[in-house]
């Protein structure tokens, strides 16, 4: 099993551009749909936890899934599988970057990749919103949080803590009286 985790997360790490959030569709396809290691709801919870923890998002989520399946050995296999492709690619780029950094073709390629990376991040964000059952009544929470971080420089940690407190208050005090 640990080899399957290493192989799966290596594949995810190798074929995903744009960082951890861009990996979400591949993680979902491999881990939820293909291997059925976690459910879609569990993945959504793991994404929320991985975002809240310090460290690299993609490695955090890999560690959580690996640990669920095979404890420490699974966590290590999934983490190494996720990190190894990026490490090798960055090592190769670092070795040869000085040779092509000023090349007009390479600069044009990077300018073309940037909008695609935005799309790779936007699609899983929308899918997460749908999975989290964010409605028109609750969409103000992520929008307000994003605006507070972007425009006012509010710490993302404060946003997470306020959202957790709001969720607790809603669940403990408001929701029971609605029924």
Give descriptors for this structure.
7 helices; mainly alpha; 179 residues
How much helix, percentage-wise, in residues? over 70%
Structural class: mainly alpha
Which whole number gives the mean pLDDT?
87
- Terminal CA distance: 45 Å
Question: Radius of gyration, Cα only, in angstroms?
Answer: 19 Å
Task: Give the CA-based shape.
Answer: globular
The profile of the biggest β sheet is: none
Q: Report the sheet-strand fraction.
A: under 5%
Low-confidence segments, given as residue ranges, are none
Annotation, overall tally of beta strands: 0
Order of helices and strands: HHHHHHH
Number of helices: 7
Report on the structure:
By secondary structure, this protein is mainly α. It is 83% helix and 0% strand. It has 7 helices and no strands. The protein has helices at 2-14, 20-34, 40-52, 57-100, 104-131, 140-152, 156-178. α1 (2-14) crosses α2 (20-34) and α1 (2-14) packs across α4. The longest helix has 44 residues, at 57-100. The protein is globular and about 65 Å long. 23% of the residues are buried.
Topology of helices and strands:
Layout: H1 2-14, H2 20-34, H3 40-52, H4 57-100, H5 104-131, H6 140-152, H7 156-178
Compact description:
This protein has 179 residues and is an all-alpha fold. The protein has seven helices and no strands.
């Amino acid at each position: 099993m640990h080899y399957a985790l290493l192989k799966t997360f290596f594949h995810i790490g190798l074929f995903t551009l744009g960082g951890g959030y861009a990996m979400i569709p591949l993680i979902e396809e491999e881990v939820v749909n293909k291997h059925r290691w976690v459910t879609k709801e569990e993945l959504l919870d793991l994404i929320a936890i991985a975002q809240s923890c310090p460290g690299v998002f993609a490695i955090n989520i890999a560690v959580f899934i690996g640990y669920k399946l095979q404890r420490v050995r699974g966590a290590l296999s999934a983490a190494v599988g996720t990190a190894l492709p990026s490490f090798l690619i960055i090592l190769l780029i670092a070795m040869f970057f000085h040779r092509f950094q000023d090349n007009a073709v390479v600069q044009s390629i990077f300018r073309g990749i940037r909008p695609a990376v935005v799309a790779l991040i936007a699609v899983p964000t929308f899918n997460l919103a749908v999975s989290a059952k964010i409605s028109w009544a609750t969409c103000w929470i992520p929008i307000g949080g994003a605006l507070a971080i972007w425009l006012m420089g509010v710490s993302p940690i404060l946003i997470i803590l306020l959202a957790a407190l709001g969720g607790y208050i809603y669940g403990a005090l408001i929701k029971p009286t609605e029924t």
